[in-house]
Amino acid sequence: MAAKAGAAPATYSPSPSTYKNKNRHSVLTDIDWVRPDGRDFHQCRPAFLRTGAVNAASGSAYAEFGNTKVIVSIFGPRESKKAMMYSDTGRLNCNVSYTTFATSVRGQGSDNKEISSQLHKSLEGSIKLDTFPKTTVDVFALVLESGGCDLPVVISCASLALADAGIMMYDLVASVSVSCLGKNLVIDPVSEEENYQDGSLLITCLPSRNEVTQLTITGEWSTPKIHEAMELCLDACSKLGNIMRSCLKESACASQE
Question: What's the pTM?
Answer without folding.
Answer: 0.88
